[in-house]
Write a sequence for this structure.
């Protein structure tokens, strides 16, 4: 019995910036897994920000010349609200779709989703959005929350397919935005094949990055996240200050960089344990160092289904996270991980103290093919059934 082969689709993955984070990891993983059977074009905004995604895609192209990914820099699509640039971005994204003859435009940030939905309304392209956390769920003023909720609702309901990696986002889309289940997909992110360094090697590398001696007795509370306000590393620093009063062996290492760095440095200076808090900067393949931590902590105000938490779970180290987004789902059944409902320094410090008493555990490997295959099937379904 013969089957009709799938057409070779042309898919455009759109993202607001190339500065490395969870959304960039998602785009990279998806692009590289689909490139052998689809024409993949990645449009990246914010030309003055980090170029990590562009660089990693270019390196992948060099290693895989038979299935290259097209990389296109967008000038006017930026992370912040900028009325003039946002208007120009509408035309820019429309040209991106038309120029590349896209069958599917897959948006990967709230900003890209909103502008992409308005830019392509009159075009035959099928619009897909992956929710990396809804902006309106952040701790905002009621006016800003209402503004973002309206925009995200319009953009989400206009998508031909909304991919939700976590049950919380899926519930918002289904029950609050009233998106039909036929246009929703629950596809959790997956992360595999991380070349973790052994504990001693990871700690030696961390010591070099922070310029400070790490002994076998040092207890490292570590975090990996870009320094944006929504990541709320300030809460982690204040929580660590309480823990440090009772634990002279503990230090805190934050891996990452971003617009909040100056504010975080100011907070560190004000704390009595300032000399035990270290900013390691952005580190390529930082996840490989996770087994050098005693505890991984993530105190963000908003998360979708964060890759870094998948990586920490795979490393088997104790974990403390906020009870937000897909975080509780990721650590379900993990004996040395906990989520904190009350976002106060006292509650976080208590959870960190308990985590330091836990041991690393072995984790069952999962296949990243689950995510890519599910997305691939939905792409073809969209085009075949339009």
């Amino acid at each position: 019995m013969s089957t009709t082969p799938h057409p070779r689709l042309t898919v455009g993955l759109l993202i607001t910036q190339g500065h490395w984070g969870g959304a960039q990891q998602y785009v990279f993983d998806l692009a590289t897994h689909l490139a052998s059977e689809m024409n993949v074009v990645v449009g990246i905004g914010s030309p003055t920000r980090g170029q990590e995604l562009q660089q990693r895609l270019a390196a992948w192209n060099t290693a895989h010349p038979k299935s290259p990914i097209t990389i296109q820099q967008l000038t006017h699509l930026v992370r912040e609200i900028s009325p003039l640039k946002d208007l120009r971005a509408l035309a820019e994204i429309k040209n991106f779709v038309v120029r590349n003859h896209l069958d599917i435009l897959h948006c990967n940030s709230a900003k890209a989703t909103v502008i992409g939905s308005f830019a392509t309304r009159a075009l035959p392209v099928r619009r897909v959005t992956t929710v990396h956390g809804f902006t309106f769920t952040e701790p905002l003023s009621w006016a800003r929350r209402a503004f973002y909720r309206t925009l995200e609702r319009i953009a989400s309901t206009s998508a031909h397919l909304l991919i939700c990696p976590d049950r919380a986002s899926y519930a918002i889309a289904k029950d609050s935005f009233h998106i039909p289940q036929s246009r929703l997909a629950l596809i959790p992110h997956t992360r595999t094949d991380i070349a973790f360094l052994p504990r001693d090697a990871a700690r030696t590398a961390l010591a070099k990055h922070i310029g400070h001696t790490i002994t076998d007795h040092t207890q490292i509370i570590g975090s990996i996240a870009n320094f944006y306000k929504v990541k709320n590393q300030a809460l982690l620093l204040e929580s660590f200050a309480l823990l440090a009063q009772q634990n002279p062996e503990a230090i805190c290492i934050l891996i990452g960089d971003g617009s909040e760095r100056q504010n975080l440095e100011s907070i560190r200076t004000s704390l009595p344990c300032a000399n035990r808090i270290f900013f390691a900067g952005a580190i390529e393949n930082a996840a490989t160092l996770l087994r050098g931590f005693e505890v991984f902590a993530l105190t963000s105000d908003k998360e979708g289904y964060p890759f870094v938490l998948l990586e920490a779970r795979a490393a088997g180290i104790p974990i403390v996270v906020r009870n937000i987004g897909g975080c509780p789902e990721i650590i379900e059944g993990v004996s040395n991980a906990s989520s904190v409902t009350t976002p106060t320094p006292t509650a976080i410090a208590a959870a960190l103290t308990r985590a330091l008493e836990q041991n690393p555990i072995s984790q069952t490997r999962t296949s990243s093919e689950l995510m890519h295959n599910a997305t691939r099937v939905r792409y073809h379904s969209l085009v075949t059934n339009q």
